[in-house]
Amino acid sequence: MALRRIFCAVIMGPPGSGKGTVSGRITKSFGLTHISSGDILRANINAKTELGLLMKSCIDQGRLAPDDVMSRLILSDLRALDQSSWLLDGFPRTVAQAEALDQAYSVDTVINLNVPFETIKQRLTSRWTHLPSGRVYNIDFNPPKVPGLDDVTGEPLVQRDDDTPETVTRRLKAYETQTEPVLEFYRSKGVLQTFSGTETNKIWPHVEAFLHRKLPSVSQKKA
After folding, report:
1. How far apart are CA 21 and CA 46, in angstroms?
2. Which residues contact 113 (CB under 8 A, 6 or more apart)?
3. Residue of 121, 160, 170, 187 marked catalytic
4. What's the CA gap between 137 and 123, in Å, rounded?
5. Alpha carbons 144 and 221: distance in angstroms, whole number
6. How far is CA 198 from CA 75, 88, 121, 162, in A?
7. Which among 86, 115, 92, 94 is positioned nearest to 18, based on CA atoms?
8. N or C end: fewer C-beta atoms under 10 angstroms in the chain?
9. Which of 4, 28, 48, 93 is catalytic?
10. Using CA atoms, how far apart are residues 20 and 3, in angstroms rounded to an integer?
């Protein structure tokens, strides 16, 4: 049987744009391995590694992690995948990171979720979390049964530091300043595909149809 070429994809969008939800649907529908920079960051923060402590300080201040640190971590995970096709979520966030990735891999497509900042601010500042389980509630469209309490345990919900209005605003400004040039980097390479909207469920069918065209063999396999 002929070896299948590895398909390399990146998903981009501001924090709170629905990247996690769309990424989950892509991995389920198309069989790509999901590599989340957020998951890698959290693993290092929870393990209290030297890099993890440095990153926590950045996140608490609404800043992005240093380029060289993020590039080392992500490229290490990608190399470990060997022959698997993958979807990168949350990386690259700067042109320096994009260049580091470009030196190691040829990216086939970059899916950009273009969600208005005002929509994201409303979405994120309405978000409350049950820290022990990671369950997330949104007071606008997924509220807890009892205000302020987790549905399963009845324990109190908290608003994460990075979901407060001040930090959300800082994160969105950091995104705009540091990540928008990455879109230009990929646009100049002809691999950028932008999907605009305010609701993930309305954006998803367009992403799905686009990937069916890009990955016909996967489409037939799933049919």
Report:
1. 23
2. 11, 12, 13, 14, 17, 18, 19, 22, 195, 203
3. 160
4. 11
5. 39
6. 32, 22, 12, 21
7. 115
8. N
9. 93
10. 30
How much helix, strand and coil, in percent to the nearest 5, is found in the chain? 50, 15, 30
Beta-carbon contacts of 76 under 8 Å, excluding residues fewer than 6 positions away, are: none
Phi, psi of 69 (to 5 degrees): -65, -50
Question: Is 127 one of the catalytic residues?
Answer: yes
In angstroms, what is the C-alpha Rg of the chain? 18
Q: pLDDT truncated to tens, each residue of the chain (223 aa)?
A: 334 578 999 999 988 898 888 999 999 999 999 998 888 888 888 898 887 888 888 878 877 678 888 898 888 888 888 788 999 998 998 999 999 999 999 999 999 999 998 899 888 888 899 988 888 898 877 899 999 999 999 999 998 887 888 888 888 888 888 888 999 999 999 999 999 999 999 999 999 999 999 986 554 344 3
Degrees, nearest 5: CA angle 180-185-186: 100
Side chain identity at residue 166, one-letter code: E
First to last CA, the chain: 20
Residues 113, 115, 117, CA angle at the centre, nearest 5°? 135
- Residue 19 appears among annotated catalytic residues: yes
Q: What is the token pair recorded at 80?
A: 């470990």
